[in-house]
Amino acid sequence: MDDKKMKVLLYLKKSSLDRSGKAPIMGRITLGRSIAQFSCKLFCNPDLWNPRESRMDGKSREAVEVNAKLDNLLLAVQSSYQSLLAKGLPFDATDIKEHFQGCVQSRMMLLERFDDLIEEMKGHVGVDIKENSLASYRQTRARLQQFIRAKHKVSDLTFSQLTEDFIKQFEQYVIGEVGLKQSTCYNMAVLIKKVCKLAYREGAADSLLFDNVHVDKGDSRLPKALDKDALDKLKALRFDGLDEDMETARNVFLFACYTGAAYCDLMALNHKHLVRDDEGALWLKFNRQKTGVLCRVKLLPEALRLLEQLHSDARETLLPYMNYATYLSCLKAISL
Fold first, then answer.
1. Residue where a domain terminates, one of 76, 106, 136
2. Which residues form the Arm DNA-binding domain (predicted)?
């Protein structure tokens, strides 16, 4: 094979456009008279594809990312060619394809790709996701690592080692042994599937793992409402400084009851959100973080008393910040 040069051509398969109008990027390895085609697991708008350069035109974020992945892919193909050449045995284009695809699949690890996804999502904070959403990625990653170490006795798994029952085993572990809710498990499974889908598109997995695996969303019943007696009992609780977090959680929850505001909106409230009407009554005026809808809430006397109680010159926000997980655990501890 020394006298035969390998050629790699990248092209678009325009006959297989996806719903967004993008075409899959394909590769063709030619060695002598042998030819092998493969999918790059990447997609491109046909108008942005440069067939002469075999890459995307422009300097957009998408173009930079796709071109970088194509460069890595070409390096992997070239590395496989050199490895087979060094063995001194006959091989063809199909052997090169199988070698480089096997190398990619065998070296990419699940938790490693999850870490990359977390790094990618950091750039989305404040744009299309919130910091709390990023925390769910980290929590899922931590539980996944815990599961792999407990059940597989290794620090990480390659995508080629994952079987279709992996998700179900993970579900049984986090619900049965860790004690998480079904709804929490469902949210974690969604993120795991997302990582696997990315790995498939990048060529790190040879199949779309867990695409047909169903994980139940959990109890969809409406939350139980507090009646007046329960609310009065909650207001009457005394902590005497023994558990500051629990008292803060109780007060934040009461303020939510009096205003109807969501947790994420409460944590963002500051003095600029307080306005007075013509009669001197104090109102909250803010845009909901989730929908952007403008909200106006007249503050009840109970809410005003809580604001005065929780006031601090050391911070700009109206209420003390409390991590959502801590907030929920405190409410659970006082039987809410």
1. 106
2. 10-97
